[in-house]
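Bit of a strange request maybe. I'm writing a small parser for structure token strings and I need a real example to test against, not something I typed by hand. Could someone generate the tokens for this chain?
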Amino acid sequence: MKKLLLLSMIALSATLVVRAAPSESSRPEYVTRIESCEAVLREFMANPATAIPPAVLQSAQGIVIVNQFKAGFFLGVKDGYAVIMVKKPDGHWSLPVLLGAGEVSFGLQIGANAVESVMILTDPQTARMLYRGRFNVGADAKAVAGPRNAEREKFNHEILRTPVLVYSKAKGLYAGATVKTGWLQRNDSVNFVLYNTTYTLPELLYSDWVQPVPEVVPLMEYVQKIMP
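Reply from user aminoacidic:
Good idea to test on real output. This should exercise your parser:
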């Protein structure tokens, strides 16, 4: 058993080393991450049970779409990725920027192979917490479960003032319940490859110095459509 545990730790360490040095050959994987996050958002909005209410979408200053999974069998390590976009002063949405994500899980989803979440950022400052590298959702920024579309007639509008509104496919979460959903971390090296640039997260989110690559346009157009 000790040997198996040691081998698992070595394999996990090797995976982290590989991820630390992205290459051009990794770009198709990063494109897939963008596309999968778009699919997650579309699935949330297509299902009345998980759809985000218009009042929440109208208040959004940023959005984070998380796709998280189990990376290790023996250690149970959770790993994943996310996409963040912010709304600019002119009303247009930024480029999608890839992030690392970890421990993004809810009680009723323990043991699941994947956890999909959408986080609505209601103030412009929360996204800037990523400037320092990593922030913990629910600790560095208060987070609560967001009201569902089916609850739009009865939810407390005070909820909309919470910095992060979290939507997950977990059952039993009610609007306004405080949640802690792990950490989000900037990953500039991945975005260097995706966008073929040396600009980092702040420039990608808040400037117009980098043009969108074709693969991210569908996500940008969809976000602009549902959150004009």
